[in-house]
Amino acid sequence: MADSERIQNSWMASDQTAIEMSGEGTGSRECSSLPPPPQKPFNSDQLGIGERAFSAAGAAFLSAIIVNPLDVAKTRLQAQAAGVAYSHPLSNMTSRMACFGPNMGTVSICPPECFRYKGTLDVIYKIIKQEGISRLWRGTNAGLALAVPTVGIYLPCYDILRNWLEEFTAKKAPTTTTYVPLVAGSLARSLACTTCYPIELAKTRMQAFKETQIGKKPPGVIQTLLGVVSNVKSTNTPQNSLQGYRVLWTGMGAQLARDVPFSAICWSTLEPTRRKLLGLIGGDDANALSVLGANFGAGFVAGTLAAGATCPLDVVKTRRQIERDPVRALKMTTRQTLMEVWRDGGLKGLFTGVGPRVGRAGPSVGIVISFYEVVKFVLHHQYT
Q1: pTM of the model
Q2: Boundaries of every domain in the chain
């Protein structure tokens, strides 16, 4: 079963299904009426790590720009639920009053409700009105700095692990082949997450907090990370020099607790879905458009399901990453934070920001997977 599926989608196949054709097409060339020799099915192992990384990085770049506003909305909602106040930068009673002259008294600029987010669209509207439309892309530079190496590691490693495990299980344990996408996705995501985690920490903090000084440019990735380190070093905690750098990985357990099941759910849903779609709309005659459509559709469904199922762990990850007390940040655990979220907000608290998270993840996974597979498809035709 697994072999027939890989043959059907030849640009995704492992070398187990490659057809040896060294003896074909070598006959007499005088007979122009003879049909051309059939093409050798593409073996995805022919793609080097550089080509895979290029395909994945391009997909990550496109996705990060398109869906960043929803990521900002999700982070703001989760941060607000964790206690971050989004008041006006001039939030004291005197400075929030606009003076209209000595005899005209004062009037409030905006009531406190102006600075409380009620939902995804409300977040987007208030950010545009209060901070400017460019703030919807706050953290995009961190997102790009994160997405390119992360996906550049994640998708190529997934491809390589999946191909190797499919070949191994097909020979040794055919009944376990179904679980290959789940295992390969989890391992690849763990490697990518561990490698690039400090940039993820910076991105979340950049999106969660407003700049409180009017006219001042918000800190970038490096400044944000330096601020996290210096905040820990300024405390009187023993060994604060070492902890200053360890804090850059605080919350990584929560991130792995979110990303590993996300990848497992995503890939175990995506693989059979896209194979079925490719069989329906293209099969052996699939073109770039059908590859794009099948992979985007499968990625959209898989990303949506995985994002919804792992939302509570995403809430925990955000809460741990935005903790400003360095002592508490180093002592927090994923389990304790999960119980804290449940105690404070119940089921609703665990699914804070689920709307923008699902709305972001579906298109994001669809864009990344479809772009990645289309580039591989094009490279397949170059090889053949």
Answers
A1: 0.73
A2: 49-82+109-218+251-383
Beta-carbon contacts of 132 under 8 Å, excluding residues fewer than 6 positions away, are none
C-alpha distance from residue 107 to each of 98, 265, 275 (Å):
6, 53, 63
pLDDT tens column, 196-255: 888 888 889 888 887 666 667 777 788 888 888 777 666 655 555 555 677 788 888 888
Name the H helices within the chain.
2-8, 49-81, 120-131, 140-172, 180-208, 221-233, 240-246, 252-281, 288-309, 311-321, 326-331, 334-350, 354-383
DSSP per residue, 128-152: HHHH-GGGGGTTHHHHHHHHHHHHH
The CATH number of 49-82+109-218+251-383 is which of 3.55.40.10, 3.40.630.30, 1.50.40.10, 3.30.70.270? 1.50.40.10
